[in-house]
Amino acid sequence: MTGVVSFDGSCLGARVFTGVERSFLLTLRSFARMHARAVLFAPESAVDRLSLPATIDIRAIPNVPLAIWRRLLLPRELLQLRPAAHWTPTTALPPKVPCPCIATVHEIPELHAEAAEHPLRQLRQERAREHLDARAWRVVVPSKNSASDLARRHPALAGRIRVIPQPVDPRFLEHRPETSRRGFVFVGTERRRKNLARIVAAWRSLPAAIRIREPLRLIGASRHETARDVIHEPGLDTDRLITRMASARAVVLPSLSEGFGIPAIEALATGTPVLGSAGSVTADLCGDLAVLVDPYSRDDIERGLHRILSDTELGNAARARGPVIARRFHPDRTAEAWLRLLAERNVETCA
Q: What's the rounded Cα separation, in Å, for the pair 102 and 67?
């Protein structure tokens, strides 16, 4: 597809970027090198800190509710811009625009027991997904699991769903010398679907001598939700996060619902095995480099921790093969997948 591509960057207004925002920006930078014509609509508060290539035309979103901006103001901008496509890394799309629209659905937590979000947030997400049938030309999901969930919940979208994995920061893929490994790392927030309470309870069920030797670090989670003997590091830059992962015995991610599992690939990039949920995207990504458990069973999570501590072959395999697997998720490969998706419009136009 030729012509300018516009992007809804309204999610970039958060003070701290999560995996979704970071992955979007990583791919956008690569995309800009391959397809020079791009416009990004971003909150005024984010414009000065995005550090994007000069080839991306950044336009500030007015300080109004996003629903009003998408319904009334964005369509006017797109009518003037006439982009070849409008892409959003979220589910929300404007009601009427003069171009094909591409939305992103990361996960559907309410399909998984105990994983549903706040009722108001869940309602907004459900309504946005219901509008996709009328508004979305394509819907991007990050994993086969997410594709299956979305097609089951919204069968009319099945033919429009495309799986495009999210990338990892190339800094995780840089070679680094092996270091001694101790303890476990959890990366994420205290949202229900992250299953933090069971993870902490399982770790605290280990003998005291093991807990002292093998601490649990919570990176990103707030302090008040968990026990005192857990190490809290709510905010780490990328380089320090890499250091923590590369010096851990395992990254623990037995979540109740997972869109793609970016921390799982980041862990493999550092040669670190993963404790994940059976039947989840982590199982698809990591294969035999993950110990898979029932995320609803504290005892099973504890057994998984014991296995990681005793299985030296698992650690050796992760160090040897993990970085090889992780290189498949370079941002350039994700940007190439974006371009292939956009090219589908050319095929349809010529048919």
A: 17
Residue 25: is its pLDDT beyond 80? yes
On whether the CB atoms of residues 89 and 104 are closer than 8 A, the answer is yes
Tokens (6 digits) for 224:
């008040």
Quote the pLDDT of residue 60: 95
CA distance 59 to 9: 10
Amino acid at 313: E
- Is the CATH code 3.50.30.80 the one for domain 5-167+330-350? no
Going by C-beta distance under 8 Å and a sequence separation of 6 or more, which residues neighbour residue 280?
145, 255, 258, 261, 292, 295
Homologous superfamily, domain 170-329? Glycogen Phosphorylase B; (3.40.50.2000)
- Residues contacting residue 207 through CB under 8 Å, at least 6 positions apart: none
User: Can you give the pTM of this predicted structure?
Assistant: 0.88
Residue 177 per-residue DSSP state: -
How much is the mean pLDDT over the chain? 90
Helix extents (H) in the chain:
19-34, 44-47, 66-68, 74-81, 119-135, 144-153, 196-204, 208-213, 238-246, 262-269, 281-286, 298-310, 312-326, 331-350
Q: Are 169 and 26 in contact (CB under 8 A)?
A: yes
**CA gap 325, 330 in Å, rounded:** 10
Contacts with 87 (C-beta within 8 Å, 6 or more apart), sequence order: 5, 6, 7, 8, 101, 102, 338
| Cα angle for residues 128, 133, 136 (degrees, 5° grid) | 80
pLDDT at 2 over 90: no
**Range(s) of the chain covered by CATH 3.40.50.2000:** 5-167+330-350, 170-329
